[in-house]
Write a structure and sequence with these properties.
The structure is a single chain. This protein is α/β, with parallel strands linked by helices. The protein is 42% helix and 13% strand. It contains 13 helices and twelve strands. α8 links the parallel β5 and β6. The protein starts with 5 loop residues before the first helix and ends with a helix.
């Protein structure tokens, strides 16, 4: 009788989703990384216009519409000072597919992929689905990834390492010096650096720099998406940017598993990338205000929390039983171990919700903290 593949048996349902599904209908959800802002009106309207004009009825090019590809190329020139070729871009079904393509195209069975621990849940799972071996790397005290730790773990079996800044789940922002070092490691050790830059514009302190900017070889692949920057999680529109030869291999995977990204979403993404960008700054300012409310509340109740400098997550150290107590009282947070073994003793809290709900959640957390101490 046919059973299941070993690689899929190694993967379980995300701990984030398990917590979310177990929560009551009236719970305050601080578990999902989804902005509570609407998609910009001009992006929505571009999709509507494309649908009404019949432009979204058929397949697009595997890479994406020429206009969207050009918009992504222009975005990298504008925001990152990078010269990306149109043939070095694939529009994907969200950042998740972009990660999947990068790993499938570069990882052979048994090869290692170095990932931050705690780190985004997809890094471990997608490495296993590609028949690779994830190797979790512990973080610094401020929850950034130390390039020296990456270099120490590079072996002849290492295919790639993943960098994520600003980070999900920690909110940490890597320094430009770190990014330069990641590029050097990729160059000197001839390993692939996969740079997850989905949160690049949500930075409160410091600045976002891409390791691709510093690389002397083509050993950096950038993964990005409209999901967080433009509050377009449901549109499922991301992309990979890399050298033409690397993108050609990723395209071989993409054309068979996806064919092309959703056509209406591509028109919306083009408008988001080329239209007014003031909404991005407005959302980021709001996230920073919410971060400060959350940090003040957590520290006031005696919890230690490294200060997140970007994204919209905080990861406090919490007492044993704290997460369960908070969830039982109607606030959804995610246990740190859902993001890797080194996340044990932490909780991830998303503050992509309004301040009123945050303050109510902090009241619950305060009661939970007293209960478990």
């Amino acid at each position: 009788m046919t059973e299941f593949s070993e690689r899929v048996e190694q993967v379980s349902i995300s701990g984030i989703r398990e917590v979310f599904e177990a929560a009551g209908e009236d719970a305050i959800n601080l578990g999902l990384g989804q902005p509570d802002f609407p998609t910009p009106e001009h992006a929505r309207q571009a999709a509507i216009d494309a649908i009404e004009a019949g432009k979204a009825d058929g397949y697009t090019s595997n890479r994406g519409t020429p206009e969207l590809v050009d918009a992504i190329v222009e975005k990298h020139a504008r925001d990152n000072d990078l010269d990306v070729s149109p043939n070095g871009v694939i529009a994907t079904a969200g950042g998740s597919e972009a990660l999947h393509l990068a790993l499938e195209a570069h990882v052979d069975p048994g090869e290692e992929v170095l990932i931050p621990d705690p780190g985004f849940v997809s890094y471990d799972a997608l490495t296993r689905i590609a028949s690779g071996t994830p190797v979790g790397l512990p973080l610094r005290e401020d929850l950034t990834l130390d390039p020296a730790t990456v270099e120490e773990h590079v072996t002849e079996d290492t295919a790639a390492f993943i960098v994520n800044s600003p980070s999900n789940p920690t909110g940490a922002v890597q320094s430009p010096e770190d990014m330069r070092e990641f590029a050097r490691i990729a160059d000197e050790h001839d390993v692939l650096c996969i740079s997850d830059e989905v949160y690049e514009h949500i930075v409160f302190e410091g600045e976002h720099r891409s390791p691709m900017e510093f690389a002397e070889t083509d050993n950096v692949v950038v993964v990005n998406a409209c999901s967080k920057t433009y509050s377009m999680t449901g549109w499922r529109l991301g992309w990979v940017a890399a050298s033409e030869r690397r993108v050609e291999r990723m395209l071989r995977v993409h054309q068979y598993v996806q064919a092309c990204a959703s056509a209406p979403a591509q028109y919306a993404a083009e408008a988001a990338l080329t239209g007014p960008q003031d909404v991005v700054g407005e959302m980021t300012a709001s996230f920073e205000e919410r971060r400060d409310v959350l940090l003040d509340g957590l520290r006031d109740m005696g919890l230690s929390v490294p200060e997140p400098r970007g994204a919209f997550y905080a990861m406090p150290e919490v007492p044993e039983g704290w997460v369960e107590e908070v969830i039982d009282r109607g606030v959804v947070v995610v246990p740190g171990e859902a993001f890797g073994s080194h996340g044990e003793g932490y909780a991830r809290i998303s503050y992509a919700t309004d301040v009123e709900d945050l303050r109510a959640a902090l009241d619950v957390m305060r009661e939970a903290t007293r209960a478990v101490r």
